[in-house]
Amino acid sequence: MSQATAFEAHKHFLATVTPSGNTVVERATLALLRDFPSVSPHFSRSPVFGATDPYPDAYDWTHMLRAAELLGHARPGVVVWNGSKGGSVGIAVERELRTRLEASAKCPATTSLFATVEALGLLGAKRLAFVTPYGDAYQAKVEKNFAEIGFATVARENSRMADNLSYASVPLAEIRAMARKAAAAKPDAILGWCTNYPSAWVAGEIEAETGIPFLDATTIVLWQALKMLGVDPTPAARDWGRVFAL
């Protein structure tokens, strides 16, 4: 496909708000959407960086909603929060976020957490193994919130990092090793939970090795967003995990 043909193929605008310290979301989105020439991705950022979160139990609503408002000027079909903070703030705050994003961008919205919950439901998965870069305290908070919406943690492999910029630096070989250890607990699904963590690039490989579905927080929201745009996500199953074929 020529560049001119690719440009003219764009029929859907996908808007993404992502943390300011994130270096994975755009790369994963652009790589995955190569299989979807009708979808044009557009990005904005909200301040999330360093080791200290000034809003540990909520969102920075001012900057988050301003980012969505600016994306809304392009009249996207869907706006997504491609961030995994929903796992630590809980489902009630995430519902509020979705409502506010829709109002700001003036289009349907979703988040990594909502996409994950839907996918796990379709898989019938209740027992999870987490693979994350987080420290123990933050990891425990995530597991508690997942438990409150019906998902039990049967294994975890976390790298005990604190600075969110560093999450993207975890080598793929290390993520593979962590996922293999987590798979030993025979979970219903393995969850790479952090959108600044490059677990998406090992999802298909780990699934092939273990037979266990591997969901990545960064790409799972793209699966749901594609469906919301009326685009069949199945072509991504080859490289990004079986969830795209659900």
Task: Explain what the structure shows.
Helix 3 (about 60-70) packs parallel to helix 5 (about 90-105) and helix 6 (about 110-125) crosses helix 10. The strands form two sheets. This protein has a four-stranded parallel β-sheet with strand order 2-1-3-4, with helices on both faces. A four-stranded parallel β-sheet has the order 6-5-7-8, sandwiched between helices. The chain contains eleven helices and eight strands. The chain starts with a helix and ends in a 6-residue tail after the last helix. The protein has helices at about 5-10, 25-30, 60-70, 85-90, 90-105, 110-125, 135-150, 170-185, 205-210, 215-230, 235-240, and strands at about 10-20, 40-45, 80, 110, 125-135, 150-160, 190, 215.
In short:
This protein is α/β, with parallel strands linked by helices and 246 residues long. It has helices spanning 3-9, 25-32, 61-72, 86-89, 91-105, 112-123, 136-148, 172-183, 203-210, 217-228, 237-240; strands spanning 12-19, 39-46, 78-81, 109-111, 127-134, 152-161, 189-192, 214-216.
Give the number of DSSP strands.
Answer: 8
How would you spell out the order of helices and strands? HEHEHEHHEHEHEHEHEHH
SS content category = alpha/beta
User: How much is the radius of gyration in Å?
Assistant: 17 Å
Q: Determine the fraction of residues in helical runs and give it as a percent range.
A: 40-55%
Please give the count of helices: 11
Largest sheet: 4 strands, parallel
What is the general shape? globular
Q: Could you give the distance between the termini?
A: 28 Å
Unreliable residue stretches: none
The average pLDDT value, as a whole number, equals 94
Task: Report strand order across the widest sheet.
Answer: 2-1-3-4
Q: Please indicate the percent range of residues in DSSP E strands (runs of 2 or more).
A: 15-25%
